[in-house]
Design goal:
eight-stranded mixed beta sheet; globular; binds adenosine-5'-triphosphate; binds magnesium ion
Length: 281
């Protein structure tokens, strides 16, 4: 009787949350605010919009999500390779879950097919528990960043108004579109000195994408430059928790609402796709 009841509960739980959406966050240029966006977006989605969120640190060279959340670096995905169970490699923090450390992902490819399939199954199962899986990638445009983007339903491309950041954001979209035909980009302009500066930045990118690539990109929102964010980072706290009325937090709230208003098809098999794109499945 107990078993039946818990089996049913599992089934219901799976049904109500089996619609996770994968969002990859990338930029081209480093230091434009991806990780701060990722942790604060996760916090608001989880705490104000009551969504189940898994944040994955997929910055392979320089995993640092845990630092912004004032947590110790703990187990990561590679511990799955040595038989660790998925629930033990997830850390709970401020109402959402994080999966740290994709470093060592290359070792995955030394495993046999059955072990890889078992890891994919575990990752599928865990992802199904969430409404959104947010993937914070590293700077640059290597094949791993590109695989995370291509396996995701959509990618948020973060830029700032600086020409170098815009150029790298454009280069990232260009290379992934030209090589793979992937065009599910939504742009966020961070560190804006005014709303107008944010819109001008987006418009320039949009015109280049239309003219030279023939693709339409959307603006998801702009985020202001604010000293409160720097302050929060130094104190290893989140701006969204410390300064709920700061314009960064308010604009981020609008981005969450915008995301939640969208009706888009769901990614069926992110992990299988990711590992195939990375060279093994
Ligand atoms: N809106 C903002 N206003 C002021 N400072 C900001 C803003 N967004 C980010 N920063 C600052 O920019 C720096 C880099 O931020 P973050 O680490 O989030 O960037 P990143 O794109 O993840 O970097 P990397 O490419 O190294 O992963 C941090 O010191 C942060 O304080
Ligand atoms: Mg980062």
């Amino acid at each position: 009787m107990m078993d039946q009841a818990s089996g049913l509960r599992d089934l219901v739980a799976q049904k109500s949350t089996g619609n996770s959406k994968f969002i990859a966050i990338a930029s081209g240029k480093g230091g434009v605010g991806k990780t701060n966006f990722a942790v604060n977006f996760s916090y608001l989605m989880a705490n104000e919009f009551k969504k189940k969120i898994l944040l994955i640190d997929a910055d392979i060279g320089m995993a640092n999500v845990h630092l912004f959340l004032n947590r110790k670096a703990k187990k990561g995905i590679k511990d799955l390779f040595s038989g660790e169970k998925i629930d033990d490699v997830i850390t709970k923090v401020y109402g959402f879950d994080i999966l740290m450390g994709f470093s060592g992902i290359d070792d995955l490819f030394d495993l046999d097919d059955i072990s890889i399939q078992s890891i994919i199954n575990q990752l599928n199962e865990i992802s199904n528990r969430y409404d959104f899986v947010i993937i914070d990638t590293g700077a640059g445009i290597d094949e791993k960043v590109s695989a995370f983007l291509r396996a995701s339903n959509k990618s948020y491309i973060i830029t700032t108004p600086e020409p170098t950041a815009m150029m790298d954001a454009y280069a990232l979209m260009k290379s992934i579109y030209n090589i793979f035909g992937y065009d599910k980009f939504k742009v966020i302009v961070n560190m804006c000195r005014s709303e107008q500066e944010g819109e001008n930045t987006y418009n320039k990118l949009k015109v280049s994408c239309k003219k030279f690539l023939g693709i339409e990109i959307e603006l998801l929102g702009t985020l202001p430059f604010t000293n409160n964010l720097r302050q929060s980072v130094r104190a290893q706290k989140l701006i969204t928790m410390e300064y709920p009325k700061d314009s960064y937090t308010q604009n981020l709230r609008k981005i969450c609402q915008q995301e939640l208003s969208l009706q888009e098809p769901l990614e069926e098999n992110f992990w299988k796709k990711l590992f195939t794109l990375m060279g093994k499945s």
